[in-house]
Structures are given as C-alpha cells and as structure tokens.
Amino acid sequence: MTKFQDKWRTFLSEEQIEEKTRAEKEGVKLPSTAEQLEKYVAKDFKSPEYYMQFSDVNKLGINPKSGYSTPLGIYSYPITKQLYRLFVAGKLPFAQGRKYIIVFKPNEDKNIVLSLGKRNDGGIDSKTFEEMLEKLLSKEVSDGKVSRGVYHAYRRHTQGQGFKADEILKLTDGFIRKDNFINKVYRNKTVSFFARLAADEFLNEKPYGKAPSYDKMLDKFMKNHSYAMKDGSFKTGAQNLEKEDFTEEDYNNFIYYLEAQDLSPKESAELRLKELVADKGYNPNNPLEALEATEYWQELKKEARSQTNLGLLWYLSFKLQDGNPRVWRTLFQNVLGIDGIVDVAGEGLIHPSEKIQAVFFSKDAVEQVTTIRNTETPEAISRRQEYRTKESIQRRATEFYVDALGIKPSSKMLESALTALKKAQETNVWKIDGANNFDAFVSWLFGKDLFPPSSIPGEFDNASKLTKTVYENTKKESLDQFHRILTEKWIDDYFTGTIGEKHTDARSAAYETTEPLQTQLIMEAQALRREAADFSNQVEDSLKEGEISPKEVRERIVKGLKEYAEAFDVIVKTAQIGT
Question: Which of 58, 72, 321, 547 falls 20 to 30 Å from 24 in CA-CA distance?
Fold first, then answer.
C-alpha cells in the first residue's frame, strides 16, 4: 500500500463525526451534511420555506457588532436548489466554513417581504409603497435618531420652501455677531452651526407648533452632526454649548429675537406652497408625487442598487439610518411593519457580495427547525476533492505503467504523476473553457465524454462555441502528453537504477587499483555513462516526436542499457584482476 493510500484512509476516518450515535455504532449509515440539508430544499425558488444560517455556535442569533453596511438582523440563505448546489460545491459566497448550519423558517404571522425583483416590484405594491414612504418621511420619524436630509427635501415640497439657507444665515448672524456674543463665535465654531439649526427648526417647522425646547434642540444638534463629532475640537465645542457658549438663556433670547423680526408674508411656507402647487401642478398631499419632485429623490434613485419599490425603500431607509444598524432595523420593523426581507431575485439588494440572501429583524420572526453539524466547509470539500483528484491521477498512472510499460510503478513515480498532469493542463489550458480549473480538467480528461463535457456542468460555460473536434483533439493531446511525461520519468528512474548504479560500482572498483590502470578504468566508466545517457536521450527524443510508442521506448531502453550495463561489468572484472 502506498503512502498516499495510507493518508487517504486516514483522511476518510478523520472526516467522520467525532461523536457517533448509537445507531451508527450498530452499523446504521448516518446521512451526510448535504443529505440532511437536501430535504429542506424548496421545490420552487420563488417560495422558499426554510432558511440556513452558518454559525460557529449552536445557536440562531443576531450579531450586534456586525461591521457590514446592513441593518441589524438574522442573515441567512433561502434553501433553494441553486444555493444547495453552491453549498455542495463549497462555493457559497460567505460563512460556509463555520461549524454549524442552523435551519429555521419564518413564523406565519410575520410580515416577510419576498422580492422577485421587477417581477413583483420587490414584493411591495404601489399603494403600500406610498403608505410606507409617508411613514418614513413623517415628522415623528425625523425627530428620532435618523438623518433629516430626506425629510427636509420632502417637507419643503409638501409645505412650501420656507426660509432658504442664505435667509436663515442672515437672520442668525444678526444675533450671534452682536458685541456681547461675537467672542463666543470666534472661540467656538459650533455656535454658528447650532444657531442655524435652531433658526431653521423654528422658522421652517412653525406649521408643526412652537419652538422645540432647549434640551430637545441640543439633542437634535448632536444627532444631526454625529459625523462631525469625530473631530476632537468640534466635539469639545459642542459640549461647551450648554456650559457657556450657547446656554438655555441664550437660546430663549435667540427665539425672542426671531419672533421679533419683521418677516415678510411672501416668505411664509403657506404662500410659497400655493405658488409651488400652481407652478408644478402636483398634489402636495401625495407623498410619492411630492418626493419625486425633489432633486434629492432623483439622485437617490440613481444610486439605489434596485429600482423596485422595495429597493427604493431599502436605500431611502439606508440614508435615514445615518450609520446606525439598530436604527435601520427599527425603521423596517417598527415603522414599516416588515419583519424580514428575502432577495430571491438575486439583485444583491441586501448586500452586493451575496446576491441571494435573506434578513429577519428579530428572533420572534422565525422558528428554529434543526441544527446540522457542518462537514461541508469549503476547506473540507476542497481537501476531499484534492484527494479524489490525486487518487484518480495515480490510478490512471498505475494503469498506464502496468498496461503500456509492463511495470509496477514505485511510490515516487506515482507521486510525480500529479506534476505530469499539471504540465499537460498548462499546455492545453488555453484551448478549452474551464481547463484552468484543475479538478474539472482531470474529471473531464479521465471521463467518458469527449463533447460536450457534461460530466462537469457549469465549468465549461462556452462549450457550445467549440467544435467536437477541438475537444477530441485536446483530450487526445493531453493524455498523450501525460503518458509521455510518465514514460520520461520511468526512463530517468530506470537509468538511475541501472546505469547510475553500475557506473558507481565501476568507479569504486577502479579506485581499488593503482596507476596507470586506475585512471584508464575511471575514464572508460565515465565515457560509458555519457554514451548511455546519449542513447537514452535519443530514445526520449523519438518519443517526443511521436516516432515510437511508450511500449517501444521500454523495449529499446531495456535492451540498449543492458548492453551498457554489461560493459560496466567488464570494467569491474578488469579492476578485480588488476588488484
């Protein structure tokens, strides 16, 4: 038994599950990981019933510290035929290397949106889409921990433009640049930012009621400028507002100042709204019409990965959540009433690196069905495939050595067969699609198919573009090259085992003699070795040129080197006589 076979048997035994059940110990064959998972595969990809999450702990859960730009949730794959095939091949895009497969299903009373892409507009009809837009753009949501950019763009098209940024800046500077305040502005740049936000909130939010409280305004300022808090000086300035630079007393005085201004009625939101409706002709009470009239929405649509209703809601909520995955989860589950999203269309809606994926926003939305110990990790699959490939190559090499050369190959010769086939692959890789995949190339080369290579579907994607002759010739040329390299390896081994040893024996015997016989015998031994090597090279060249077969090579080599071996024996006998 070869070392390879020993390793192969050891590998197989190590791949067994460590803790065997009583049934297995009694001789009952347990199903593999793939077999256990197969029974959960959906018959129709458009309606998956079960989902799988990969984990290193035997527990279905949410990773609160996920570093991906996605909402907090339980991420998984729908168990469809396509993803099952990728799993068996070890080619799922993410997490297949983990220890456990957690199989679960959504609870029936939960609202799970199943997106078929454009075929069902992401699983959200037009009426529901408008209702959800209105919820996301409500005053209540904008006052929470979300970015207000989308809300402002929307509001100013439903209630009028209000006071523009330059008008607010003019009013603000009229207060903060007075003699008793100007030093604070120069010392703390956040004073200006805070005053502008407070003025905008008071002047442009007036239809919603009185000015917000000082504490609420401070909280809103911190949230709206969370990105700037990474700057140490800005953060320090913001913290100093309440202490001394823009106290509650300053804030109240600022509001009194704004109320005392002689503001022209033409600048009111109500009057501008009437002009806006007359000019653009849209219904300001329709959230979709109002939002579509803004440049913000047009830009957002261009950036969204999916143009479906769900895709636009996904990207809008992404803009609102302001880098907080918990807020993003809350927007879906609490504001929109969505408990999970399944992208079976493969739009990469949830994450571009995982085209088909599902996310569920709480454990309450799903029910765990079973846990499967995962022995089908990419590493394990690759390892098994590597061993299968090596075994296939060495088996074919053994058959060639026995059938064509009539010899039993050594373990060293079998080990070199892998290198021989890789050389054959490198020579022919450009000729056919898929040949750059070594395992696929070996499977096709030693398989029965000449054209098309149906034994490995998916590896030869452009097979229809190539002719049957191309595949037949490539297979023949590859096999011929493989056999030729094996034969060359045998020549080297045979030469070393005969001429190499005979040459060493002759030189050793010559050194036992005295001059001038010693030098004469050593030179004769060296000349014989060169002649034997030249003879072997000539035979090898004839093999490469296709002039003789591997079988003829063996006949010539054995016969020719036998004569040289006998000549070395004469040198040994001569040396023995001379000592």
Answer: 58
